[in-house]
């Protein structure tokens, strides 16, 4: 996985103002050029229906705001993704699955009546991270009928083609089988999902030169607010906290 702009843009739309003033509450699009049936009026347009965008939309609704979510895919969720076993209909998670045990997360799941399983994460352990590119996690989710599938997570600091990643995954699985005295089999691919490019980074020099000060100065310009992994970190719990305690207050003050 390499560089990725993962984002949600929250644009506050209101009816008046002029396009000339970048901080005015205006839309640069002239509604007169559109059929009235094609125009939706909302307080906020959320661009991107991933982890950050969906959380923001729900919480804005809680605050009495009208919201529209524009998502380019045919489903919401972004990196939260499942593969559905065509035989049993069982959904197997192939995306986000771990969350921090913090109030924002617990409150969010409680509203959907979803239970969470607690895992004891021992932060005193050494990093124990494998060298990348390579496989960094493998799970065998149970399927009805005792069928075996292996869910493999693979990471890379640089850009690799899907074929290179697949070949390295198969090689890694076969080495694991060999080293553990198991019959070496050619696995069948059931699903493959690339999340590349993934992690957006800037150099130390740019950070020292004020990159983040300039980035955060964009918040609220043209009535647009930004959250998502590119603005904070690749962690849903942290993004919901960022939205709850930083973005929502400044947005609601602007509305
Ligand atoms: C395999 C995997 C496992 C992960 N596991 C965890 C985990 O266990 N716990 C955790 O906290 N985090 C995990 N993460 C990280 C987590 O997924 C991200 O931090 C989080 O999804 C970022 O949320 P986001 O809203 O910024 O972006 P995304 O979830 O990527 O959502 C962005 C959305 O914007 C949409 N979009 C993009 N461009 C446009 C456009 N032009 N117009 C409209 N829509 C657009 C995309 O289709 C997408 O739906 C994992 C990531 C991956 C890839």
Describe this structure in words.
InterPro entries: FAD/NAD-bd_sf. Keywords: Signal. Residues 1-20 form the signal peptide. This protein is of the alpha+beta class and 255 residues long. A hairpin with a 6-residue loop joins β4 and β5 (91-93). The chain is built from six helices and eight strands, in the order ββαβββαββαααβα. The chain starts with 7 loop residues before the first strand and ends with a helix. α1 (51-62) packs across α6 (236-254). The protein has a four-stranded mixed β-sheet, with helices on one face. The radius of gyration is 22 Å and the shape is globular. The site of flavin-adenine dinucleotide (FAD) has 30 residues, from α1 and α6. Flavin-adenine dinucleotide is lined by residues 6-8, 47-53, 70-73, 78-79, 95-99, 153, 195, 228-229, 234-237, 239.
List keywords for this structure.
8 strands; globular; four-stranded mixed sheet; binds flavin-adenine dinucleotide; two-stranded antiparallel ribbon; alpha+beta; 255 residues
């Amino acid at each position: 996985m390499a560089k990725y702009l993962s984002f949600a843009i929250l644009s506050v739309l209101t009816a008046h103002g002029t396009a000339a003033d970048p901080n005015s509450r205006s839309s640069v699009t002239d509604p007169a050029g559109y059929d009235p049936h094609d125009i939706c009026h909302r307080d906020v347009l959320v661009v991107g229906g991933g982890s950050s965008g969906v959380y923001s939309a729900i919480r804005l609704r809680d605050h009495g705001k009208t919201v529209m979510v524009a998502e380019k895919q045919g489903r919401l969720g972004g990196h939260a993704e499942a593969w559905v076993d065509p035989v049993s209909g069982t959904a197997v998670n192939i995306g986000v699955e771990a969350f921090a045990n913090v109030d924002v997360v617990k409150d969010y799941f409680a509203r959907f009546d979803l239970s969470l399983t607690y895992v004891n994460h021992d932060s005193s352990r050494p990093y124990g991270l494998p060298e990348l590119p390579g496989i960094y996690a493998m799970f065998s989710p149970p399927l009805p009928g005792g069928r075996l599938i292996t869910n493999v997570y693979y990471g890379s600091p640089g850009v690799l083609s899907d074929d290179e990643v697949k070949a390295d995954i198969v090689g890694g699985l076969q080495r694991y089988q060999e080293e553990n005295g198991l019959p070496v089999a050619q696995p069948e691919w059931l699903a493959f999902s690339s999340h590349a490019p993934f992690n957006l980074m800037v150099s130390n020099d740019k950070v020292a030169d004020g990159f983040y000060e300039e980035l955060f100065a964009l918040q609220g310009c043209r009535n647009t607010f930004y959250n998502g992994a590119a603005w904070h970190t690749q962690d849903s719990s942290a993004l919901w906290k960022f939205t709850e305690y930083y973005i929502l207050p400044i947005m609601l003050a602007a509305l």
